[in-house]
Amino acid sequence: MATNASGFFTAPTVPSLQFAFLDLGFLPLRESRRGYSAPALLKAQRSMLELPLLNLDHPSKESLSTLAVEAAHKALEMAQVGVDDVDLILVCTSTPDEIFGCAPKVQKALGCARNPLAYDITAACSASYSCLQMNGKEVLRFAVRVVPQSIEYSLAKAGLPASSIDWLLLHQSILDAVSTRMQIPSEQVISNLANYGNTSAGSIPLALDEAVRIGKVKPGHTIAAAGFGAGLTWASTIFRWG
């Protein structure tokens, strides 16, 4: 197992991220056709030691809340909206700083004069089911079936045909299966999976933000967005950018 002096290991498929293991025990990786083998990690480790990392040794200085505040400032700047015009703050994460959530801390740090509503959205309340074994293949089949149905329902509510979709924006782990089922070419699918891996709750807004900043998504484009997550929850929306 390859680690650096700080006790981090790197996954070869997500070159911009590193993960901490908290002395809870770690199983050694075996050779795998998927590339998650110890030799692959060794190569990744050597090439990534100089990458900028989150300052995990100083959580009081940098945390999920501080990162959320920074992201909020960038979003407000791009939208040309002032902090005092914010009516609602939503924080979506599976790893809050505290069990009670981060949204109020983000609201305070932003300094919103109007005291907007601020709360966290989570769907990972699985405590009482932790001893159950998930049928992963069946869940995937269910997601691939339900997400296209949800998008089609949203299109019908919006009075739009499927051909009006300029971009398909999905939770990154089901991109290929859903786009194939909906017969949407890969050129119209927004994906940053190759750069960051699966970023969970942040995958859809992160991918959209990057697509806008590089000029891929332009004003007037119609986007079909859908997500599928913990607790067997799913949602979709159709919106026009700009």
UniProtKB/TrEMBL annotation:
One Pfam family per UniProt:
ACP_syn_III_C
**Pathway listed:** Lipid metabolism; fatty acid biosynthesis
Q: Does the keyword Transferase apply?
A: yes
Which part of the chain is the Beta-ketoacyl-[acyl-carrier-protein] synthase III C-terminal domain? Answer: 155-241
- Mind listing the GO molecular function terms for this protein? acyltransferase activity
Which UniProt key words apply to this protein?
A: Fatty acid biosynthesis, Fatty acid metabolism, Lipid biosynthesis, Lipid metabolism, Transferase
Q: Which GO terms describe its cellular component?
A: chloroplast
- Family to which this protein belongs: Belongs to the thiolase-like superfamily. FabH family.
Q: What is this protein called?
A: 3-oxoacyl-[acyl-carrier-protein] synthase III
Organism this protein belongs to: Pyrus ussuriensis x Pyrus communis
